[in-house]
Amino acid sequence: MVASLLATKVHAEQALISFKVMSPETALELARAALADCRKSGYQVAVAVVDRFGVVQVVLRDRFAGPHTPDTARRKAWTAISFRVDTLTLARQTASGSPQAGVRHVTDALMVGGGVPVEASGSIVGGIGVSGAPGGEADDGCARAGIEAILEKLVF
């Protein structure tokens, strides 16, 4: 009987999982920091922050960013957390003719630089996407500057 109770307890512990996500305030701070970094370079962009499941937490669009940029930023952030790697890397890994090229057809996936997973102690807690700078590398740079600005809040 004791063995049965212990087995039940072990099974129950494995049935539930705990995880961390960014607070809305942290997600907003991340988006603002990325937007500010792009502005310093003269870029008008949109920034989207998603939680670890790809659900939008924040979208900011600068006043002259193109109308397509909010959705593009969201898709970049979603892609980064879905594939667990930044979208600059994905763009290279999924180039036309590569064995992985087929993942470009996944609905909402966008293999263009500017999407970066946000990690804390080795766990993905969200993602950020930036759209509107001149090229994916510039979008990626702004996203990473945003993460750098909140890095001390991500340590747990």
Would you mind describing this structure in some detail?
Helices cover 44% and strands 17% of the residues. The chain has helices spanning 2-15, 24-40, 69-83, 87-93, 136-150; strands at residues 46-51, 56-61, 115-120, 123-131. The protein has a 4-stranded antiparallel beta sheet with strand order 2-1-4-3. By secondary structure, it is of the alpha+beta class. A hairpin with a 2-residue loop joins β3 (115-120) and β4. α2 crosses α5. It has one domain (20-154): Beta-Lactamase, CATH 3.30.450.
CATH class: Alpha Beta
Task: Label the overall shape.
Answer: globular
Residue windows where pLDDT falls under 50 for at least 5 positions: none
Q: Which architecture does the CATH hierarchy give at level 2?
A: 2-Layer Sandwich
- Report the CATH topology name: Beta-Lactamase
- The residue-averaged pLDDT reads 92
> In angstroms, what separates the terminal alpha carbons?
39 Å
Assembly level: single chain
- Rg result: 18 Å
